[in-house]
């Protein structure tokens, strides 16, 4: 497996629940290193741009409104097979379908308020990391 980087966002519901640390612990205990990190209140324009691939989907407006409803914690995770590993740790999009012990099973309330985002491919990871972090703000470790 190759060393990869992926973009992770702790969404407004999980930030409000005060579980940033618990989620970071899961990353760290599973071989993912935080190599960049910031808390941010997304503007509507930033959220729309980030989720542009979903623009035509029926849930797009609700998704954008939810993502700007409070601050989010944005991080770059680095590790062997980081993209898939993070997706495995997150669990299924709908927490009702998420396997026990996954972040969404433990912290998400609904398909909308589902605690975390994670890049879904290596190609999208590179695009998403660059969307939020200049290369100089990502630290090789
Ligand atoms: P994410 O992008 O946030 O990591 O989530 P994901 O890959 O598991 O799911 P995706 O298909 O990319 O959808 C992005 C977010 O939109 C919301 N969603 N709502 N009501 C619905 O049918 C529906 N489908 C998706 C979810 O909050 C999902 O995380
Ligand atoms: Mg997605």
TrEMBL record:
Its cofactor is Mg(2+). Keywords: ATP-binding, Cytoplasm, Kinase, Magnesium, Metal-binding, Nucleotide metabolism, Nucleotide-binding, Phosphoprotein, Transferase. It catalyses: a ribonucleoside 5'-diphosphate + ATP = a ribonucleoside 5'-triphosphate + ADP; a 2'-deoxyribonucleoside 5'-diphosphate + ATP = a 2'-deoxyribonucleoside 5'-triphosphate + ADP. It is found in: Cytoplasm. NCBIfam families: PRK00668.1 (NF001908). The active site is at residue 117. Belongs to the NDK family. The lineage of its organism: Bacteria, Pseudomonadati, Pseudomonadota, Gammaproteobacteria, Lysobacterales. This is Nucleoside diphosphate kinase. SMART domains: NDK.
